[in-house]
Amino acid sequence: MSPRAGQSGPPARTLAFVESPVQLLNVLEWAHLHAGRIAAGAQEAPGAPDAEGAQGAGTGGADPAAVARPGGSDPATAFLPGQAAVPVPALPAPALPAPAALGAVPPQSRRAAVRRALGRRAPGDRAPAAGADLTVVVLAPTDPMTRGQLRRMADLAREDGHRVRWEEARGGASAPFQTIGGLAGVLRRADRIVMGDPFSRYVQLLLTITRAKDLVVVDDGTATMEFVAQLARGERLVRWHRKGGRPGARDLLFAPVSSSARRRLTPNARRRVEVFSSMPVSEIPDGVTVTANGFAWTRARFGPPTVTAGADMVGTSLVETGVVDGERYLEAVRALAKAHGATRYFAHRREHPDKLRRLAAETGLEIVRPELPLELIARRGPVGRTILSFPSTVVHTLPLALAGTGVRVAVCDIDPAWLTDTASPRAQGFLSGVTGTARDVHRLAAVSLA
């Protein structure tokens, strides 16, 4: 089936472009908060399967029940100390109706009862009105872990009544031209564009096509803080861990498109710009509306979790992005886990498998690769009473997602000695700012590696 399944039907007034599961999570949070505004003029309709709903199977989509079924058909992977990767269930199974209770129920109703027990909407249940007007366009990456999480998040979006259009945007040399060409028509007709990564060259290119007067930037983690600051200062859009380096040939070639995107993301009398974020925003550009993301959708959809007495640790991709030295990071994880009695390590989706195997072998931690963004995994539980993290997005988002559960989030600073020689000059200051501006977290001193 074509990756563009579902082009038929009424044109979407709101298009959301996402390239990561976290971006899609925050699109769902934004849609939950703004459901009334998205649905203006749209009729509420029964939740029948849409054209995109069947598309996942044709493009490698996951088993639909895998979203709510812990582990699903592709369970989280744990690396046990000294062993190869083995599949393990990430979470306890949900309680399904007892067979005896279903014995006298017709087969169709039986299936509907099971779907509802799994947290899925059954045929005939009413879909939110917002779903009739929001189309999520997934610009699929190539990384397998990111793709897997995106498929599961796409299923959740469909369950909420939203259309999902999966684009193999990086599936070969001709893929970008096919993707942009296929989206040109709906881009020109859209009234509102929601984007998860304004630094993305793909998104910046798509912004040159749209005529939408309403632009929304939802959280893409700590990068959102840098985006707002750069927009306020009128600077070119550059990711924080690359800032300070000399622009490469591709940067120079793409500069006119990036400049055009920055102009379009600057509000004026004809164009409204909103930033939807759980991150602290200190420099707000003139005319930009900042809306707080309180993770209301996550709290309503999942949990509350079972809280265990132990500690869990959250991994980071700072080694993979060239900011932190790999050996220093390994030593820091070992020291932090020993000091706080951590037993599980929730890996970032971009952490390299070789690094994770070594962490498991040398620290004794159980390495878990989550099937969904950590905010949802933690909210479903079980989760440790203490969650340890280095400076990252989760020190801002987990306290919101886990509000009222009694879970404590503790963040460990990055010692300047851990940084690589090639790290951006801004790296230390930016990471300190991520930690220092986090609310409702316990701040730990950098661990001693002596």
SSE order and pairing:
Blueprint: E1 14-18, H1 21-33, H2 35-38, H3 55-58, E2 77-79, E3 85-87, H4 99-102, H5 107-117, E4 134-139, H6 144-159, E5 163-167, H7 175-189, E6 192-195, H8 201-207, E7 214-218, H9 223-233, H10 249-264, E8 272-277, E9 288-292, H11 296-301, E10 307-314, H12 326-340, E11 342-346, H13 353-363, E12 366-369, H14 374-380, E13 383-389, H15 394-401, E14 408-412, H16 427-436, E15 442-444
Parallel strand pairs: 1-4, 1-6, 4-5, 6-7, 7-8, 8-9, 10-11, 10-13, 11-12, 13-14, 14-15
Antiparallel strand pairs: 2-3, 2-12
Question: Would you kindly provide a written description of the structure presented here, covering whatever features stand out?
Answer:
By secondary structure, the chain is of the alpha/beta class. The chain is built from 16 helices and 15 strands. The strands form 2 sheets. It has an 8-stranded mixed beta sheet with strand order 3-2-12-11-10-13-14-15, sandwiched between helices. β13, α15 and β14 form a beta-alpha-beta unit. The radius of gyration is 22 Å and the shape is globular.
